[in-house]
Every structure is written in structure tokens, then in C-alpha cells.
Amino acid sequence: MPGITVSPITPSRPGLGALIDNVDLENLSDADFEALRHALYTHNVVCVKSQAHLTPKGQAELTRRFDPEAMSYGHGKTIDAKRSILHPDLKTVPHQPEVQVIGNGFVPEYEGLENITLKHPHHRTFHTTVIPEDKDLDFTRFYRWHIDAALYGGLQPPLVTSLLAVKVPKGRTQTLLYDDGSNDTLQVPLGTTAFVSGYTMFDNLSAEQKEFVLTSKVEYAPHPYVWISTAKSRPDGLGMVSEGKEVPVDELPPVEKATDVQIQPMAWQNPVTGRFALQIHPSVVRKIHLRDGTVIDDLAKVREMVHDLQRPGIAPPLVYAHDWEEGDCVLFNNHGVLHSVVGAFDKDEVRLFRQCNLAASRPPLAPEVQA
């Protein structure tokens, strides 16, 4: 059998999206895994077709292969917090707790789960403004641009996330609206997952902005997904609107150790290419730490600064919107891309996916200037 082949999905943009052929993810040799890893860190989002036979155990083992010392699901137990905005969106595979089931609609039985109703995140529950209901099936938005990460406690951001499409509704596309005054729009497949490159986001900064990003860090809120559970997002899905609606810090669950509050570099380095990605989770950032020790803690200002850095990187020509087919297994470099749920489904449209990511065994690779 010939070795795996790698084909950029958009040849003019090889750093974001590639198809992988001649590989069986359930039975991956060491040589093929190394080729897959190199492809992942070169193209940052890779899709392997026709992997419907991949078991939850095989998916977990594949995901762990990128970080053999990673043991637990990326959000650990934090996902169980009833006030977390992530709580309604995920079901855990009982016999493989690192693997989550996500999607939309009623599923009578799947991998030991019975009579489950999956709920696709909808911008109406999260954005400060909404698309009118009579236009809901024709138009959509980016729900929330993010990194898969607990961003709290000892749970470091997962290196790689795997997504397997089990059931995919078809038949229509939607027009994605940025609704941020730019008139930007994007035609997308129904229920796409949208990706943008943190490397492109960094490369397109000015020299002054790059210096700022390379030498600054961001502090995330304690219990970040509970903190924003009462706040609302910008219409472009890139961070929150500052209206003072966050859960007050003294009303959050207790912080057991000061180090549970995570401070991460703004720039994360690719372990294969050496490129820097601008990697900030815009929804849950709370403070900015400058090189000279100054801390910017005006939340509205912090959010504006982060949005100004990131917004050019989600422009329509820079977005890769994956057109899912059943059996697609997509792996993405969670230390180099941001992604967003997209789409509005009718109640009868069933979508069933499996997701796996593991809290990393080490922090993101920071620029040497941080040392």
C-alpha cells in the first residue's frame, strides 16, 4: 500500500485545510502517524474521508497519540458545572469518557446513550442581537470563535481535537452574516465548522502589533465559562459585549489555588514549522499582562484590544468552512487555529458527531522572549 497522500483543500491557502488519503485511522503505522502529524502541523486542519468504522476507543487512542501523556478530557470535570455555558452542548460516551457526542435532534440510541436530544448551539441564546426568526433557516452566524480549552486549573489547552461526522443533514446552504457593520457575508454549508488560522492572524499584524503579541500574555477569568454564562457575545462571535453582565467573581465557585487562574502567552509556536499563531480565546479573556509588568484590567478595553487584533483574521476569504460528509474525521491543531460552530437547524434535522480532545501534558509553546 502506498504511503499517505496530502492534498491542500485550497491550493492558494495551503496552511489551512488538507485532505488525507491512503490511511486507516483505526490501524495507523508509526510511519503513517508521523506523516499525519507533519501534515496536521503544516496544514493545521486535515480531513480523512470514509472513517465511519473508527470506534470511540480508536478515536481516543488516535487523539492521545499526538500527546501520549495526556489522559483526561480537555475540560475535565469543569464541563459538569450546571452554570457553564458548555454544559447543554455535550454528552459523554459512557464507555469512552474522553469522547463527547454533539449535534442536533433526537437520537434513540448511540454508543450506550439512549433517548438523547442533542442541542446545536444557536446564536439566539448567546449573541446580543439576533437574526429574525423568519430568516433563521436561510441565514446564520459564527456562534463563538474559540480554542478548545478549559483555561482553568491544571487543564492545559489540548494539542489536537478530533471530530467524526456520524450523521450529517444535507440539502441546503446558509448565508452567514457578520452583522458587525462591515457588510461581510459568507455562503456556508449547513452545519459547517468554520476554521481560521492563528498563523495568518499573526502574520497579518503590523510590526508593532507583532511585538506586542510576542511580549504580552492574557489572563483568563476564573471558572471562565460560568463567568460569561450571563453575558452576551458580539454578532461576529469574536468575543463578548461589555455590559457588566458577567457573573461577579465573588459569586463564582471558589478558586482553590491562585495558580488555577490561567495566564497564557498571546503567541503560540508551531512545533513543526516554528510559525507563531495569535491564540487568544476572546470570549473568556479578562486581563492583559504587558512585558513591563503592567496589567490592563479594564475589561471593555481588554476586549477591544483583543478584537482589534483578531478581527482581520476572520475576514471571509480567510475562513475555511468544512463541508461535512458522513465518515469525515477532521483533526485540527488546537494550538494554531480558532474554530466556531455555525448553522441553524430545523427541529427535524438530525446531526450526530463525536468529539475528542485531551488536556495537554504541557503548556503551549511560548515565544522565547517570554522566558
- Content-based structural category: alpha+beta
Name the poorly predicted regions: none
Give me the CATH fold name. Answer: Double-stranded beta-helix
Rg measurement, Å: 19 Å
Return the CATH architecture.
4-Layer Sandwich
SSE pattern, N- to C-terminal = EEHEHEEEEEEEEHHEHEEEEEHEEEE
How many β-strand runs? 21
Question: Quick one: overall form?
Answer: globular
Classify the beta-strand content into a percent band: 25-35%
Distance between the ends: 46 Å
> Mean pLDDT, as a whole number?
94
- The CATH superfamily is known as Clavaminate synthase-like
Continuous helix count = 6
Number of structurally distinct domains: 1
Describe this entry's structure for a reader.
The protein is an alpha+beta fold and 371 residues long. The protein has a single domain (5-359), classed as Double-stranded beta-helix, CATH 3.60.130.10. It contains six helices and 21 strands. A hairpin with a 7-residue loop joins strand 9 (173-177) and strand 10 (185-189). It is globular and about 55 Å long. The termini are far apart. 48% of the residues are buried. It comes from Cladophialophora immunda.
Helices and strands in order:
Blueprint: E1 5-8, E2 18-21, H1 30-43, E3 45-48, H2 56-65, E4 91-92, E5 99-110, E6 113-118, E7 139-140, E8 160-167, E9 173-177, E10 185-189, E11 193-197, H3 198-203, H4 207-215, E12 217-220, H5 224-227, E13 263-265, E14 267-269, E15 276-278, E16 285-289, E17 295-296, H6 299-310, E18 320-322, E19 329-333, E20 337-341, E21 351-357
Parallel strand pairs: 2-3, 7-9
Antiparallel strand pairs: 1-2, 3-19, 4-5, 5-6, 5-21, 8-19, 8-21, 9-10, 11-18, 11-20, 12-13, 12-16, 14-15, 16-17
